[in-house]
């Protein structure tokens, strides 16, 4: 798929600078996730992160792996990520514009997707090509907003309205158990389902799954 034809590209290109300037909503929850992922990474692994946004997480995690390729469908996001990388270079880290579902030239030991799975065009149809980048026995680690767990007034009224006026991207509405079921349909063995948030109800479910 041509990244520039992707429905998400226009939205994320337009808000990239604002997104980069926004503070992390739950800093302790974010740090919990980073620590959890760092403990799973090793110096002999090749890592692919899809939907890397402006690269903040990649810059924090890349030092724990041998090679770390961070991709995003929006060129503006990658431009900001490369600016950050120039200011703070990390060995083995590379940023590229790519669709999460486009084929990769090589396979990876770990596939990371943070705040990305709910933005895919279709859960099953998108996960299948995405997971081809993962080696057998490799880990798929994701943290995803389960938008389907929100108040129905938000999902049925506020979200469609926000999309209409260009304030929100297209999102998939699923709950954590539906996401786990989708991973299992892809043949993944789900090893952990966690929530790392520290403020009220945490919609973002953290999942560790292994490719057989």
Radius of gyration: 16 Å
Number of domains: 1
Q: In CATH terms, what is the fold-level topology? A: Rossmann fold
Number of helices: 7
Give the number of DSSP strands: 7
How far apart the termini lie comes to 27 Å
| Unreliable segments of 5+ consecutive residues | none
Can you tell me the overall shape?
globular
CATH class: Alpha Beta
CATH superfamily: Vaccinia Virus protein VP39
Instruction: Kindly state the percentage of residues in helix.
Output: 25-40%
- Helix-strand pattern, N to C? HHEHEHEEHEHHEE
Strand order of the largest sheet: 3-2-1-4-5-7-6
Major pleated sheet: 7 strands, mixed
The structure class reads alpha/beta
CATH architecture classification name: 3-Layer(aba) Sandwich
Compute the average pLDDT.
93
Beta-strand residue percentage: 15-25%
Describe the protein.
The chain has 212 residues and is of the alpha/beta class. The protein has one domain: Rossmann fold. The chain is 37% helix and 23% strand. It contains seven helices and seven strands. A seven-stranded mixed sheet has the order 3-2-1-4-5-7-6, sandwiched between helices. Helix 1 runs parallel beside helix 4. The protein starts with 6 loop residues before the first helix and ends with a strand. The relative contact order is 0.16.
In a nutshell, what does this entry contain?
The chain is built from seven helices and seven strands; from the N terminus they run ααβαβαββαβααββ. It is α/β, with parallel strands linked by helices and 212 residues long.
């Amino acid at each position: 798929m041509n990244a520039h034809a992707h429905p998400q590209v226009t939205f994320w290109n337009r808000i990239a600078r604002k997104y980069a300037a926004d503070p992390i909503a739950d800093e302790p929850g974010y740090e919990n996730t980073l620590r959890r992922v760092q403990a799973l990474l090793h110096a002999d692994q090749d890592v692919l992160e899809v939907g890397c946004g402006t690269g903040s997480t990649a810059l924090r995690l890349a030092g724990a792996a041998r090679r770390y390729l961070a991709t995003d469908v929006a060129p503006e996001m990658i431009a900001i990520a490369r600016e950050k990388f120039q200011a703070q270079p990390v060995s083995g880290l590379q940023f590229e514009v790519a669709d999460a579902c486009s084929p990769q030239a090589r396979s990876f030991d770990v596939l990371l997707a943070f705040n990305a799975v709910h933005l895919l065009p279709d859960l099953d149809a998108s996960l299948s090509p995405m997971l081809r980048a993962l080696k057998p026995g490799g880990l798929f680690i994701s943290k995803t907003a389960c938008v389907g767990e929100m108040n129905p007034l938000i999902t049925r009224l506020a979200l469609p309205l926000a999309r209409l006026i260009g304030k929100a991207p297209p999102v998939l509405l699923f709950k954590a158990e539906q996401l786990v079921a989708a991973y299992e349909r892809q043949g993944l063995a789900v090893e952990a389902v966690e929530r790392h948030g520290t403020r009220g109800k945490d919609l973002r479910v953290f999942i560790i799954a292994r490719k057989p």
